[in-house]
Every structure is written in C-alpha cells, then in structure tokens.
Amino acid sequence: MYDVAIIGAGINGSSVAYELVKSGKSVIIFDKEAIASGGSGAAGAFISPKFSKAGELKALIDKAFVYSMKFYEENFPYLFTKAPLQHITHEGEKFPLMDAGIVSASAMCDALCKGAKFKQEKISDLVYEDDYWVLNETYSAKHVVIATGAYEHIIKEPYIKLRGVWGHRIDVKTSTINDKSLHQFVSISPSKDGIVAIGATHNLDYHPQTATKPYDVEEGRVELLEKASRMLELKDVEIVKDYMGLRSGSFDYMPLLGRLVLSQATLGCCERKVKVKKPDFKNFLYYPKLYMINGNGGYGFVLAPYLAKMLCRHIVAGVKLDDALSPARFFARWAKRRK
Ligand SMILES: Cc1cc2nc3c(=O)[nH]c(=O)nc-3n(C[C@H](O)[C@H](O)[C@H](O)COP(=O)(O)OP(=O)(O)OC[C@H]3O[C@@H](n4cnc5c(N)ncnc54)[C@H](O)[C@@H]3O)c2cc1C
Question: In 10 A of CB 176, how many CB atoms?
Fold first, then answer.
C-alpha cells in the first residue's frame, strides 16, 4: 500500500512526486509510456513570466515564475540554465532584459521522480474500496493524483473539459551565436554547443487523437524558422531534432488543482445549493482523496513546482487550496447550464 499513487509522469506528476517524497510519503508514479513522454518531453521548458495585461492568470504565473526560478536553481542547478530574457512585443517594442531560465525538460522530470517508485503502465481501472484506491486491480494507495495532461480522461466527468493544443519545437545547429533567450512570435534559446532551441508552434488544426492525416513536420519546421528569422538571423541552419506534443489547457486558461466533484451525487443531494449565483464549493460532494493537477497550458514548467507544493501541503497537512484553481468551478458552470 502506497500513501499516494500518481497517474502521469509529466512535469506536473513528477513535481508532485518530488514534494510528497520530500514530505516522507511513499509514492508510486505511473506513466503509460515513459517519464516525460507527453507534452513535457516536447517542451522547450523556458521559465519566463507572462507578458500580458494584468489579470488572475498573469498574477498566478508571475508568482509561480519567481517560485520556480528559485526552486530549479536551488534544487537542480545542473538541469537549469539561468539566462537573460529579451521579450519583444509583436509590434517590435523591446522590454528591458530580465533574469529567466531554461530547464532540461526530460532530465528534470526524471530527477523529480527519483525518490518515487516508477511503473510504466497505463492506468485504466480505478476503484475506491474500504478507504483506499485500487489501481488496475493491482496497486493500492490512500490518495490518488491524476496528472494525465491532455492525453487521457481516467475519471469521466462531463464538466472536465481540457483542450489539447499541439506544439512543435526544434533544436537547430547554427553558426550564429545567441547569448540570451528571445521571445516574440516564438522563443529562441541561447546557444549551447552551437545549438539553439526554437519553440513552439500553437497548432489548432492538428490533434493526434482526431487527425485523419499525419502531422506535417516540414510545415511546422518552416513556420518555426520563419518566425525565428524575424528576431534573429540564423546562419548555416541544420535541424538536429524535432519535438512534438500536446499542451493541456482549460477553458478559462487557469490550471486545475484540487479535488474532483462527484457530479451526479452532488446534483442528487443538493442541486439547489449548486444553482445559486455564487455556490459554496464546500457544499459539493467529492471523490475521496482524489486530486487533479492539469491545465498548465504553455507554462507547465513555470507552474508545476508552485502548484505541486500547494497540492502537497493540502494532501499532507489539509491546507486549503485556492477556489480559483478548483476543478469545482467547472462543475458549477456546467451544472448551471444543465436544463
Ligand atoms: C512544444 C511545446 C513547447 C512547450 N514549451 C514550454 C515552455 O517553454 N515553458 C513551459 O513552461 N511550458 C512549455 N510547454 C507546456 C508544458 O510542456 C506543459 O504545460 C506540460 O508539459 C504539461 O505537463 P503535464 O504533466 O500536465 O502533462 P504531460 O507532460 O502531457 O504528462 C501527462 C502524462 O500522463 C501520461 N498518461 C496519460 N494517461 C495515462 C494513463 N491512463 N496511465 C498512465 N499514464 C498516463 C502520459 O503518457 C503523459 O506522459 C510546452 C509544450 C509543448 C507541447
């Protein structure tokens, strides 16, 4: 019996594993393919703040940015490169240089999972009995964390809707030396051993689960190089590697962090309390000891350490999570729209 089972070993699941192991919990983490085989393995993993108008999401990402810069630098300096960042608006206005960073995406997920037991297995069966969860009729755990990104919905609840946005990035060998991260239509990393990372596309037309024809890699490369060329002239370009994957985004762009509402049971017992203007999430019924961390959009590596810390405090010490991040907000909206 494990204290916690985590399903999905991307940056979200791996960060949660790290925090829980540090808190003395026994943790098993599953991935149907491998650690960082989803969106996380594709990420350029730039650690940067959000350059946009003030708002709830910007405030969250900015806070997470400060937290994650310190987190990676202090705990994993060998997998983190601190580099100045030059943000350029679409109109060409240059922001002052600021400190930012880049994470070695797959290696970071591996390192975060170190203290947990990793199992390559797809979890398709999840049953709660006698105060604990049984996974695939084989593994048992007191708590379950679902961190499956845009790839799978293990708990089929009608209010959980995530959109997977396909992204493509490339590593490019070039004789051009770049000494900072550049962000405009795409991001270009500083040169390392003659290679720069360029990422990423936001492809709304292609989704691996619904596509009728294969993804056009060449088209993605052309788009990336064209957008990069608007910031920097790259000479003697040779593409050395392509990375592709799905980002998982929620419909209000805020991440999902916390317990999942049992929709039918909640409607059965207390529909009137749900259909009020500002429902109190405390009145909903929840899956016992089951949590979701998801919907980080294009800021997975910025948000994950910060969200994982909060989730760990919640699981271990009962510290309340922010309602603005709760998946219950989607249940409330869905329930109100139901006839
Ligand atoms: C091209 C690209 C570039 C990006 N660049 C950046 C960037 O520069 N900075 C940044 O911060 N973010 C970036 N992102 C976003 C970031 O990568 C994502 O937000 C992050 O990877 C999401 O992590 P996750 O753990 O939620 O999901 P994922 O990494 O997708 O992990 C989910 C895992 O769950 C597993 N899984 C699913 N179902 C099951 C099951 N039933 N049983 C077992 N395992 C299962 C999958 O195999 C997968 O490995 C980028 C994303 C892409 C695609």
Answer: 15
51-110 pLDDT, tens digit per residue, is: 988 899 999 999 999 999 999 999 999 999 999 999 999 999 999 999 999 999 999 999
Q: CA 225, 299, 107 angle in degrees (round to 5)?
A: 80
CA-wise closest residue to 132 among 144, 122, 150, 116: 144
C-alpha–C-alpha distance, residues 325 and 333, integer Å: 14
Q: What whole-number distance in Å separates Cα of residue 182 and Cα of residue 84?
A: 9
Domain 166-246 has CATH 1.10.10: no
- Rounded to the nearest 10°, the torsion over CA 253, 54, 223, 214 is 0
Residues with CB under 6 A from ligand 1: 7-13, 30-33, 37-40, 42-46, 122-123, 147-149, 151-152, 154, 167-169, 199-200, 243, 245, 247-248, 294, 296-302
Give the tokens for residue 246: 């799905």
pTM summary value: 0.96
The CATH fold of domain 2-82+101-162+251-337: FAD/NAD(P)-binding domain (3.50.50)
According to the model, what pLDDT value does residue 143 have? Answer: 98
